[in-house]
Design goal:
Trefoil (Acidic Fibroblast Growth Factor, subunit A); Lipocalin; 2 domains; 10-stranded antiparallel beta sheet; 6-stranded antiparallel beta sheet; 5 helices; 22 strands
């Protein structure tokens, strides 16, 4: 007597096996691609800052390429890409939390880890999440975190993908660049960066670059004219000085000066002293988008300004 086996119980099993084999093949293909991928940095075209990791998620928040997240690019089918951290081996994914933030946290390449790379004008690109169809954008506000939540391209969704080998100096210093992240022939002169700025970061006594607190940042300003004359404040005294800026090299012409008003806020006095010290020790200047950074020995950042 023949026994009939219902086909309903067989085919789902076969389908699961087929799907598992396909996923394994995709994973093997992705991993083999990583070995040949180029290493890159992401840079926001809107604020000129490199993408770095802040609190476990990505943000366009550093002018220092040495603090930027370095990623492998993985080319997938139909012009899609994924990004992998070569140190941890984990992949960049969108969709972190309700705000769909970006983080290097995934062990695999699936929908949230896959992006469409869309070429825009010039050297700019946009990234669109395959999972939710939204564009990656730099969120407004001080944190400038990346999130896949824009419905359409705009200034906040424009990025540059910069080859890591080109932008990382062999000596550990930082490259002299101009707006757009490309090398500027002849370097930067005072006239190139003359204007009104906000002071965002200054090196502390221990040498580390520190972001000004909200209250100080609101009052802090910095101006530079075409001759190299500096005028600055952190909300109390008026600081002044004269810089010679040519071919990205910086020399101070005479000591920095300050008015002698009493500052009720101790943090203002400390910040003022640190700004004067930064200008005194600066030997080079760099520009990335709207951000200007004065650096010292070994390329260490001393003072970061953002154009108003």
């Amino acid at each position: 007597m023949l026994r009939l086996i219902p086909s309903v119980s067989v085919f789902p099993r076969l389908r699961r096996v087929a799907i598992g084999a396909a996923c394994a093949l995709v994973a093997l293909t992705s991993l083999s691609s990583v070995a040949f991928a180029r290493e890159v940095y992401l840079q926001s075209a809107q604020n000129g800052l490199y993408v770095t990791e802040v609190g476990g998620v990505l943000a366009a928040a550093t002018p220092d390429v040495r603090r930027a997240v370095r990623l492998d690019t993985v080319k997938l089918q139909r012009g899609r890409v994924a990004f992998r951290d070569p140190r941890s081996g984990r992949f960049l994914r969108a969709g972190v939390g309700e705000k769909t933030l970006l983080s290097v946290a995934s062990p695999h390449i699936r929908g949230w880890e896959t992006f469409e790379q869309i070429r825009l004008r010039g050297d700019k690109i946009a990234l669109r999440s395959v999972q939710n169809g939204k564009y990656v954008r730099v969120n407004q506000g001080r944190k400038a975190r990346l999130a896949a939540r824009a419905e359409r391209p705009g200034a906040a969704t424009e990025f540059r993908i910069l080859p890591a080998r080109v932008n990382t100096p062999p000596s550990g210093g930082r490259p002299g660049t101009h707006q757009g992240g490309q090398q500027r022939p002849g370097g930067i002169d005072a006239a190139d960066i003359a204007g009104q700025y906000r002071i965002t970061h200054v090196a502390a006594d221990n040498g580390y670059l520190v972001r000004l607190g909200r209250d100080l940042a609101r009052q802090a300003s910095f101006s530079l004219d075409r001759s190299g004359r500096v005028s600055a404040t952190v909300g109390c005294n008026r600081l002044s000085g004269q810089l010679a800026i040519r071919d990205s090299r910086v020399n101070q012409r005479g000591p920095g000066m300050s008015t002698k008003m009493f500052c009720r806020v101790r943090a203002q006095q400390v910040a003022e002293a640190n700004v004067l010290t930064a200008l005194s020790n600066a030997n080079r200047v760099e520009r990335q988008g709207n951000t200007v950074t004065f650096t010292g020995r070994g390329g260490r950042p001393l003072l970061t300004l953002t154009r108003r």
